[in-house]
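step: validate -> pass
step: tokenize input -> pass
step: predict -> running
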Amino acid sequence: MNTSTPRVFIAATRQNDGKTTVSLGLIAALQEHFPRIGYIKPVGQRFVEIEEQKIDEDSVLMDAVYHLDCPLVDMSPIAVEPAFTRKYLTSANNESLVKRIQTAFDRVAWEKDFVLCEGSGHAGVGSVFDLSNAQVAKTLGCKVIIVTQGGIGKPIDEVSLNQALFEKEGVEIIGVIINKVLEEKIPEITRFVRSGLKRKGLELLGVLPHQHILSKPTVGLVCEELRAELLNHPPTLNTLVDDVIIGAMGAQNAMPFFKRGVLLIAPGDREDILLAAGTMTFPGSPDNMAGIVLTGGLKPGASVMKALQSLPIPVLLTQADSYQVASKVHDVIVKTRPADAEKISLIRDIVAKHINVKKIIESL
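step: predict -> pass
step: emit ->
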């Protein structure tokens, strides 16, 4: 296996701490020092099917944003589908899985100056099939950066737990990045966390400010998660959802809530509310609602449907009831998508500004 190309492994203290955000921003920052960068997510858990291959969503994102000239199938060598663990425990094939990861790494590293490897959760994720993040980092000969969320005691506690598993595998930790910290708390948290990590023999590489935009889903993502039907042809599905309102009151009382970024959830037979929402929506206006979700599989009458189909905002139809839809929107895991140009630009900026890239390079 290739052992000469510089590389780093991005891990976290838990899922959704910001590994992909950090990875996305780091590639841009590292390209100033290493023009040709490869990317691999050795073990992926959220995947899409492309040309009959299961490819991790994050690999698709990196390829779409940076055009890394790496085979997609090698950027995502192992996709953990629902039956994967049962099959492995029935008939373990660790040697072949390790070989697949090593071969994929060699391919993404071909003619590259640097390879960024992204993990899939905390250090122990994957242990059930003998491919924990710590074991994968060791297999690839990577040093590790751990990403964790804001605070003082909790992130240090969680980093220490992960540190123990990486060190058990003989994997060196370059340092820690604290993510999602309120802007006004950055100076205090930086001071105390740096001190706390130093006592554990770890470096603080950066503190990223919390950005509300990164935690808001787009209407397109809501549509995917609900498996909803799009009833019209809006100019974009990338509008951010700032708030949700359930249309359970009278139309007159609901109208003050039809504001910018609001997603209206209402049964399709609440024609009064749907028409009221339509009167508050104008082509090209920056103050439009984010969209409308019709629930219960109900469609309004022909005249109201025609009015909805002409709106410049997305109108979705789902079989679920209003409560189920609201709960699902609230719980949706927001992942950056290739079309999220505003989010991607922001991520690049905050990583370049708040992470000590020079220190990372010096530690490789």
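step: describe -> Residues 260 and 289 are 5 Å apart (CA to CA).
step: cleanup -> pass
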